[in-house]
Design goal:
Layout lengths: L1 E2 L2 E3 L2 E2 L9 E3 L2 E5 L2 E3 L2 E2 L6 E3 L3 E4 L4 E3 L19
């Protein structure tokens, strides 16, 4: 669980790197947290969900990550766009 946490300016390098901010294959909950300005080679750069469970409250922000914020992730990351 990440509560009142800022995950910013991280980089995931390598030919298949994803989720510069958060790479999840288990369970993660974001509560009043920010995931911003993270980078990876392959989308998404912000939060990559690889078959796990992600919960994002309405006060958390996932934005400004490259090449995308959360897509593609399976299952999709709630409250995350792009």
């Amino acid at each position: 669980m990440l509560r009142h946490t800022i995950v910013t300016r991280n980089k995931a390098f390598g030919t298949n790197s994803r989720g510069g901010g958060i790479y999840n294959s288990g369970t993660v909950t974001l509560t009043e947290s920010k995931v911003t300005e993270n980078i990876s080679v392959v989308a998404p750069g912000g939060v990559f969900n690889n078959g796990g469970q992600v919960t994002v409250d309405d006060k958390s922000v996932i934005s400004g990550n490259r090449p995308t914020n959360c897509t593609p992730s399976a299952p999709p990351v709630p409250n995350c766009f792009g």
